[in-house]
Every structure is written in C-alpha cells, then in structure tokens.
Amino acid sequence: MNLTVAEKIIKDHLKIGELKTGKEIGLKIDQTLTQDSTGTMAYLQFEAMGVDRVKTKKSVAYIDHNMLQAGPENADDHLYIQTVAKKHGIYFSKPGNGICHQVHLERFGVPGQTLLGSDSHTPTGGGIGMLAIGAGGLDVAVAMAGGEYFITMPEIVKVELRGKLKAGVSAKDIILEVLRRYKVKGGINKIFEYCGEGIKYLTVPERATITNMGAELGATTSIFPSDENTYEFLKAQGREEDFREIVADKGAYYNEEIIIDLDKLEPLIACPHSPDNVVPLSSMENIKVNQVAIGSCTNSSYMDLMKVAEILDGKTIAENVSLVISPGSKQVLNMLANNGALGKLIAAGARILECGCGPCIGMGQAPNTDGISLRTFNRNFKGRSGTVSANVYLVSPEVAAVSALTGYITNPEGYIDDLNIDMPEKFNINDNLILEPAEVDNDIEILRGPNIKPFPKNNPLGKEIVGKVLIKVEDNITTDHIMPSNAKLLPYRSNIPYLADHCLTPCDPEFPKRAKEYGGGIILGGHNYGQGSSREHAALAPLYLGIKAVIAKSFARIHKQNLINNGILPLVFQNEKEYEDVDVLDELIIENILEQINGDTITIKNKTKGKEYKLLLEVEERQREMLEAGGLLNLIKAKNR
Ligand code: F3S
Q1: CATH classification for the domain delimited by 268-414, as one of 3.40.50.1970, 3.30.9.10, 3.30.499.10, 3.50.50.60
Q2: Is 3.40.50.80 the CATH number for 465-640?
Q3: Of 244, 308, 379, 398, which has the maximum CB count within 10 A?
Q4: What pTM does this model have?
Q5: CA 421 / ligand 1 centre spacing (Å)
Q6: ipTM
Q7: Rounded to an integer, what distance in angstroms lies between the CA atom of residue 164 and that of residue 194?
Q8: Distance between CA atoms of residues 588 and 469, nearest Å
Q9: Which residues contact 578 (CB under 8 A, 6 or more apart)?
Q10: Looking at the domain covering 5-264, what would its CATH class be?
Q11: Which domain of life is it from (predicted)?
Q12: Distance, CA of 114 to chain centre
C-alpha cells in the first residue's frame, strides 16, 4: 500500500484500530511535552495515577507561559514542576530557556516519532517530520504513564507547494493562505501534509511556522516530510544521528488536494479577531500602528529574528510604535547576542523581552486602549492581548519589522530586497538550562506551594441529568472565553477554585455566580464550541461549577475530549435550529441517561417549554465508558481495582 508521511508514522505507532479514515485509533506515544500553564494539572493527574516513572522515550516539562513573578504563585508552580519532573523521569527546561515548541524542535524533536503535548501548538513538531498532536493535560499524563492516545483516523489533505516565495513573502503567508481557504473549522479531523518542489526552499523552522499555525485550522496536525533540509537542521543542532528519511510513497492516496503557487503568493494579514480573517496585506496598508510584537512559537526562530535585525539595522522605529521582541529560545537569543544582531535590534529601539510566550499569552505588553497591535503570533482572539478594546493583526516578521519602522501597516515588498538569511551550519548548542531527571528510585521531595490545589473530580453518571441552562453562547466560543488567560489569572493555573470564578465571564460576567446559585447545570453552545487551545482548565473550571453537560451545534476536537476526560457530556443538537428554542434558565432533563447514551440519539426534555429535543452523543465506546465512570481518571482507577 502506498502511504503518505502521516500514514507511515501512524502505522508505525498503531496499537489499536486500523488505518481507516473516520475510525478510532490508539497510538503509542514516543515523546510528550508540557508547558507550565497546563503542566501543573498534567503532573497532578500523573501523580494521581500512581506511576513511578514515565514510560515514554522522552518527556519534557517546559516553563514558558507564566513568567511574570508578580507574586509567589508562578514561582511556586515552577518549583512544583521542577521537582515532580526530576522525580518521575522528565527533562525540565528552566524558565528563560525558551518557548516549548521552539526548544523542542531544536533539542528534542525526532522525525518519525510521535509527540503528544499539552499545548495546542504541539503540531509545530510536524516541521521536523514528527506526528505531533496537541491534547489536554490528562491525555498527556496517560501517555506518560504508557497509555495510548486515541484519535479519529483523520483525512489527509495534500498541500502541494509549487515554485518559490518572492522577497517579502514568507512561510507565515503560506499558512495564512491555507487559513484563508479553510477557515478555523476547516481542518477538523484532518492532517495537512505538505509536499511539492516548494518545500525544498523551506528550512525546518520555516516549516514549523506553517505546522504551528495549522493548529488554527482545527486540524489534528500538520506535517512535512523528513528530507535533506531536515537532516541539515538536525546536523546544525548536533543531532544528525536522530535523522531518518520519511517521504510519501509515489501514488499515496490523499482525501483532498490543494495547490499553492508560491511565486504568486502576496503578503497576507489576519484581521481582528480571528486568525482566519485573512485578506491581502495591500488592502490594509496605511493603518497606523501602536504596537508591534515579534515572537511567539510561530515566528521567533533564529532566522526570523535575523531578518528583523537586518531590516531594522541602522534605523529607528517610528515615534508612534512600541516594538517588543521575545526570542523563541535561549539558543536564539545567545546567537543574536554573539553575532551582533541583538545590538541592531536594541539600537533601533526594540524592547527585548525574555525568551518565552510573553505577550502572546497576555503576560505583559497589553496594547493601549483601542490600540492597533501588529503581531507575528498565531492568535488574535478578542481580549487575548490583555486589552479587550485592542485590534490585533497577525503578520509575518518581515511585515512586522517594516511596519515598526514606518509606523503604519506596510507591505515589505517595496522596502526589502531578498534578505538571504541562511540557516547557520552550526547552532549555538548549550543545554545548561535543561535539567536531566534523577535516577530511578530517588528520594526527591516534591515541593508544593500553597497555590497547588487539588483538581476537581467528577462522580460516575447517575440515573438522570437535571439542570438549568446556565448560559447560552454563540458560535466559535474559544477556550479563551471559557477560561480566560491573562496576566492576572495565569498565576492560578493550579488553583481551579480561584479560576472558576472567572469561567465564561467574557460572555456573561454573572455565569459563575449563577452556576453556584443553582448548584451546577448545563451550558448551551453554538458551532465550534471550545476552539483554540488545549486548555484543560476550560473543562475543569466548568466541572468545579457543577456543569454536567454542554449542548452545542458542534465542538472543537481537543475541547470535546477534555470534556469527556472530565465526565462532562458533549451533546450535539440533531436539529441545530432547536438551539434557538432553548433559553437561559430553562430546566432540562435527560432521563435514563445510562441507557440512553448507548442508543443512537438522546432525548432531552425542556420542562420549562414543554418540548423534547433529540441530541447526538458522537463518541467512541471507550469514551462512553469514560463518561459513565465520571471521567478518565475514575475509569483508570476502576480498571486497576
Ligand atoms: Fe506560547 Fe503563544 Fe505559543 S502562549 S506556546 S507562544 S501560542
């Protein structure tokens, strides 16, 4: 059988199921990664499983999100993760070492292996030929304990890149073009596999920009072949022994095929407030800019920042612009410092932040009220920057740098010739901020500061579900809406009782109060409910508030799994028009739930309106068991009994 790159890796790791589109498969996971804002929960859950040592080939815990230490909370979380990692066989990347995806690509990614990460941008690893998938913390904890990771065998989309990018057009524009075509829901249950002559002009970090932002399509993941460019990157990282060639077989079957002519591609821009709101940059030129932010796991590689340094060299940023730059890793920052590029950035007026997520996750550098912020990041959801009234646009590093100089959104094509930044033959390799785990059978003490609170637990399903509709929300509600993430809340990622008071407040500030008043209930959602991140807190906070079910028109993949993992029913209207019929505080009942969840549809009664609706529970048998048990941890414990 002729296989695609993704199918080859899946076949190599298939523990349960077969390579049939739409069927559930269980994959063996070689590597895991966590970042600190999802990691504390993942490690608390890992501890709850009672497994002594991770069973993966390599697991890495990164600190990159919660870097502001305005109180002891973040530092306490870091120490907890550092000690729990050391004890259980996990590498620890210290704060300052960089953004998880950038560092993982540099120091750990291995072509042909599977990577599961508790961060939705884990598909960055697809740039180096890994099958890299984002998941909730509990799924990652299960993988660390040796369990399979389950997905629906996705459709594979062939993205053929033809020709070569013009000067001023970059890898970011390629993924913006895919987002323009597919939108934020267009990638659900799909893997985007890149090929064609155009890929030979893309280095691994450029490929990683594309696979990284493929997460915005809602895709399972995105992937490039592992070829000579992959070898060159690994060699430059001193890891050529990790190379393995993986290319698609001739005649491999793809469910869908698209072509992008790189020579014809123009610079693009994603307008507020969605990464798929993509238009030609030329149509947005001359908008005055208040802030330019360069960095994030999408665009903070050595080559990205070298381009920026060359554009800024000898010039000064515009009077109206605040330029902030967060390098992706210590390796990148160190190299810029050694070769003089950092001096060029500073001289031009850039504010250099530490190596981490920073403004991307709203940890500092919020724009001014009504501000226009131009960012090289991957998300521009309303309020994510920390300023609700700000308008955030997403662009390439070239556009960001040129616009920082002019003070207006500017097409770089007229300003720069071919920049010709080559990948270095050797990166600066210094892993002194990566701590190795302790030997087996150690007596490491795990340090738990007062911010580390137990996570909420669910009960097995009872006879019926009764509850009021506590909130009714529109389409495309993100995990940022469900569990906001900003500089004030991020320090409480290991403290669900505190966070729960902010759950869904961007949609309705009264929701947590109402949920507590009625002792829990039901959430009503539109299409693509829970899009955005892998943030498990978007399921844990509702669980803490007593949410038993979410009824929506459709769900985003990772969030749906997170709900199931926590024993919250993700139900879908059979007839989505009935959404209109249901109002906040309507009382809903699902009788005989244990019988009903085994049927094709579930009947729910609206006592307030005197009506009945049919709902679908689109889950696998395994997930049904999880829901019956009240979540994955309960199921694991019951099976181990
Ligand atoms: Fe961090 Fe933003 Fe990426 S929060 S992991 S830089 S999407």
Answers
A1: 3.30.499.10
A2: no
A3: 308
A4: 0.94
A5: 24
A6: 0.99
A7: 14
A8: 7
A9: 613
A10: alpha beta
A11: Bacteria
A12: 16
